[in-house]
Amino acid sequence: MLILIFLCLFPAYLSARNVNDIAGDTFEEVSGKGLEIHTNPAGVHVLINGVDEGYTPVDLEDIVPGVHYIKLSLQGYKDREFMVTVFNTSRLIISIEMEELRGLAQVVIQKAPGSPEALPLEPQIFSSIIQGIQDPVTHNHDSTTLLSLPVGYNTIRVRAFGWDDASVTVLVNQHTTVTANIVMRPAKLKLDNASQSRRKLNPLNPGNLGRTDFRFEVSAPGTGTIVILDQDRTAVFSRKLDQFNTWVQQITWNGRDFDGNLVPQGIYTVIIEAMNPEETVSLELETEIDYSIRIFPLSIESGIAGMLLAPMPHVLPAGSYQINANLLFGNFRSSQHSREEVFAFGFPFKLNMRISPLDQFELTTTFNINPYIENRTGWGVSGSAKYNILNGTGSVPLALSAGASYSWASKTGDYPLSPGKGTGLYTPLSLELSNFSIVFCPAAFWYGFSGFVPKLLLSGGVLYRGSWLTGGISARSELGFSHGSTRFLAGAEAQFFPPPSNLVYSIFSGIWTQDDKIGAYGGIGFGVIY
Question: Model's pTM, two decimal places?
């Protein structure tokens, strides 16, 4: 709605947005008066009866009815000239597709003298244009490659695996064909742009969550190896790489040794080596095996990551994220302290994201829409931050975090499973027992100026963590001291993330009570975790 209002107030933006939709010439009469001229591309110079009217889009409401001569011109495009008749009983809207001036460039690609005959030359041709880079054209060895290019200076670049990039700038004109001669020289073997999908990994995590992908670029054909050394510089894993026949290479390591056994926790050196008959090059990376890193999906229904109704102290490792969308159904009552407002049956939708930009620190954000059947639709947004103090892997199996959240919503936009709109402070604590987490989280929640005495939130539950699923039960009690309203919610949930994909499937259900009211809810969700 806000976007529509903005475009109504500033119609020029609407014209600019739709300029690429113009395909061919159209002349349309609509109700109103005056003349509009739109072009693709925009910014075309407009002359009407020899008078300068600026650049498209042009909107002339006070133009005199009658016959008018219009000329459109833009450098690099053919001029357009035509006559139109404007009436005082209608508005004329003109849309013109400008025709670009183009010429031909003949591209001749040759090997430099002395180049190895056995080295294949399969070049791709790129040409620079005003709007960006044209899609590559594969060179035909049996004939000259002919390119249709805009009139003016164009840079033609040729790239082929095993050869240095080469380019030439030519002046293209409309009437003659220009020739671009490009000489290709063999490339020296180089390793470059090395990266890894995870610097820290836990091989016990399922599928893609428990491995790292090493990516690097090579410049020429050859073979290679990858060797992984422990802290004593002893090789624990090695593998011969496939023959290089393109620039980008990838190899995956799952944290296991030659015999398929898990390697000990620690920092490992990764040596990637490439070689051909003329030379050998190598590079090094570091990867850390950390068995305390557990990547598994959590619910964000309560506004801060955890179980369905109980925030948890766990955070994602740095660089990881989770995105999911949930559809809720049931009958709900407002989570605010008002006793009168009761929401009818509906299907609230919520989009969630949690991400860890730094070690031990996690951010979440949510957006929800509440399309209630017997009431007007509401919407809301929220965000939270959580810092992990204890991760539960030490001698004392306790995990502890401190977090804060803020949420805003329209009149009927409170998400039914969240405490409502306002600010919350949380201290989630859990006892880590093998694959189980026993969670307890006290929190204080303020509703802003509607009450300075916070509502007390007491939540807890038990979560089971498997290799490809999590499931548990949780509950939350909301005690409103200043208004005397108490709400209680309970729920069960299960989240499936079967390897090797990064997809997450969720189901959940539960009940709620508030004062003398009671209701039930259920929901499904879908997302990704990395």
Answer: 0.77
